[in-house]
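Quick start: read one record
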Amino acid sequence: MSTWHIGVIGGSGLAGGVGLENAQEIAIESPFGEPSAAVATGTLAGVRVTFLPRHGIGHSIPPASVNYRANVDVLKRCGVTDVIALSAIGSLRADMAPGQMVAVNQFIDRTVSRPASFFGPGLVAHVSLADPVCPRLSAALADAVEGEGGTVHRGATYVAIEGPQFSTRAESLLYRKWGGDVIGMTAMPEARLAREAELPYALLGMVTDYDSWRSGEAGVEASEVMAVMQANVALAGKVLRRFLATLPHERERSPIDQTLDHAIMTAKAQRDPVLVAKLDAIAGRVLR
């Protein structure tokens, strides 16, 4: 058993924070470079929360330029036990309408230019990503949406694209054929890195549009996305507060907490000491 410390990564529309009590803003350095912003840490509904705006203050960082490694590393250094991602998403399904929420449980990764692992030459590790989302966090988030009177879809496949452009119609139709339910630009490699950092991760997506798959309908416009997102910000804050308020008093351990137990492949004598040092927060538990 341990105490909860929830890391919240806020996407479009949430750079202003989540209304933390007794909040402190702290700039934390990462060996993986600059994170998106200083973190805000405090309490909400009696639970310790550390908030990080994914796109920086004023939404100044595009999806492909977000330093996902530094963001996850910083949250780990803060002592976060679990990570909740709140993101704007497009819908690839008629029944997942703008204004509704989706508790994602799978990903198809179409990103191409982003460092996707903390590990590399000199320290090789392979973690399982078969089930990339923590089921207990995802279920609790979905329950909180329903508790606040919102509509939530439980379980969906998120197609992560590079961006910053929205999809062509051909791409949007292809992703539907692949079994994609929603689409976005930021969940990968975020979810991959959270797993390597042994942080249970869940993503609650806020549907802002129908992407570009509907014939005879206009394509996605950024102004449309932001208008729906701003309308959902208040609900997202209420959902987060309810989610935190309903967490058990003590945190039972998750199997994800020991993800790296059998993932390190490189023999001790062959490990790159520079990379080992950089991974003190992410993997120090198994590298010491």
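Residues 5-287 form a domain with the Rossmann fold fold (CATH 3.40.50.1580).
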